[in-house]
Each structure stands twice: as C-alpha cells, then as structure tokens.
Amino acid sequence: MSFEKVGLQTVSMPLAGIGTWAANQATDSAEVEASIEAALETGVRLIDTATAYGNEAAIGSVLKKWLDEGKFTIQRADSDSLFQC
Predict the structure, then answer these.
(1) Angstrom distance (rounded) from CA 66 to CA 28
(2) Catalytic residue positions, numbered
(3) Contacts within 8 Å (CB) and 24+ apart, 45-52
(4) What percentage of the chain has pLDDT greater than the value 70?
(5) Which listed site, 11, 18, 64, 70, has its alpha carbon 20 to 30 Å from 38?
(6) 29-41 and 56-68 helices cross at what angle (nearest 10)?
(7) C-alpha span between 65 and 44 (Å, rounded)
(8) Mean pLDDT of the chain
(9) Residues 6 or more apart in contact with residue 50 via CB below 8 angstroms
(10) Tens digits of per-residue pLDDT, 39-80?
C-alpha cells in the first residue's frame, strides 16, 4: 500500500481505504468484523469511520485482535497522526 501526502496534508496517508458508513447498527457485527478483517488482510490501513455509524465496537474488536496478535504495531511517533482530523 503506498502512502503519500495529498493536497494540504501534513502527514502521509494511504491512497486507498475502506469506508464503513453502510456498516451501521442494523448490520450484523460479525459481518462488519469479517469485512474489516478481510480489508486488513489485503493491506488496507485506512478505515473511514464516524461515531454516527454506530459500528465502533465491531471495528475496534478487529483492531484490538490484530494489535494483540502482533499482526501490526503502532509506533508512538505515528500515533499522533492517527488521530488528526
């Protein structure tokens, strides 16, 4: 997955990602988890989400699993850019 600075960005971001707006509270959480897992397995590292979608628990579950299993790590220096809006 390539990362680039686009437009006025100050940090490099993946050029492709997965959107989760359709995976709302009405969607089976197992389906959301499977979709996120599949995306991560193919190299996707940009997950577009929002509180209004109501799917934080399912997405967080997969991210926690991957972190706990050491499938990817987050460097402290990188964590600041993860939470910029």
Answers:
(1) 20
(2) 53
(3) 45/1, 45/14, 45/17, 45/72, 46/13, 46/14, 46/16, 46/17, 46/18, 47/17, 47/18, 47/20, 48/17, 48/18, 48/19, 48/20, 48/21, 49/20, 50/21
(4) 73
(5) 11
(6) 40
(7) 16
(8) 80
(9) 21
(10) 999 988 889 888 888 888 899 999 999 999 999 877 665 555
